[in-house]
Amino acid sequence: MKLSRLLVGLISVLWVVVFIATLLVVINSTRDYLLRSMESHAQDTATSLGLSITQSKSYNDPVTIELMTSAIFDRGYYSEIQVKKVTGESIFKKRVDKAVEGVPGWFVGSFNLPTPRMNAVVMEGWRKAAIVEVESHPGHAYKELWEIAKKSFWVLLIVAVISLTVVLIVLRMALKPLGDMERQAKDRLSEASYRVGFFYFRIQWYTGAIDRFKDVLKSDPQFSNRDALYYYLAESLYRSSAEKKAEALPYFERLVKEFEKSEFLTLAQKRIAELKTAS
User: Fold this and answer.
1) Along the 279 residues of the chain, how does pLDDT read in single tens digits?
2) pTM
3) CA 279, CA 277: separation in Å to the nearest integer?
């Protein structure tokens, strides 16, 4: 594998890992913030309701407690609000088991938002008269978390794609001289084998020339002196025997197809015309 391809692959994998990690950090940070907000909201509600009951001195009036509790509960931010005696006996309780709407189930399962349950004390003078318990509903928090997750995903994706593209372009430019050096090194090796084949061609040992030229073409398909390789391979096949003349045609045609300019172009075109006429 080429060094450039290896680097591009490693950088791409690293970018994906960074993208996923950043997205998870954003989602989890938002999740922690929402948890603290729900706790604060539930505690504020419990404290406020407790003070209202204390000031109205309605801790022994279930009807008034129900009216106060229902007014707060109906806003939709709570799973349960309960006012109970210090002994644990419930004075009034209102609860709704409402499913989280507008958020995919897999998201809810992946990023759990435990519902906080906070409490406050209702006082009768210096004596504890009742306890108010408030449990937040996670529906609104999940919706906010889902919306932030979607927006963060697209923003991070756009930034990642743009930055990765820029990095790959810069990397390609930086590695181009290295690629040229690699090509030169391969050309030296291939040229040495090619010259051996050319020597065999000159002494008319066409079988040896054919084997050598084919080895070069197989080991280095992008050999810079490929036009000469095509020509002498095809010419060796053409001259070796009448049976192998047909095998020469594809190599002559590849030379013409791949090279608009070559010293062998005219010779190859003549051989193509000759072979097609003969067939």
Assistant:
1) 566 677 778 888 888 899 899 999 999 999 999 999 999 999 999 999 888 888 887 777 888 888 888 888 887 688 899 999 888 888 899 888 777 788 888 898 888 888 889 999 988 878 888 999 999 888 888 999 999 999 999 999 999 889 888 888 887 777 666 566 777 888 888 889 999 999 999 999 999 999 999 999 998 888 888 999 999 999 999 998 888 888 999 999 999 999 988 899 999 999 899 888 876
2) 0.59
3) 5
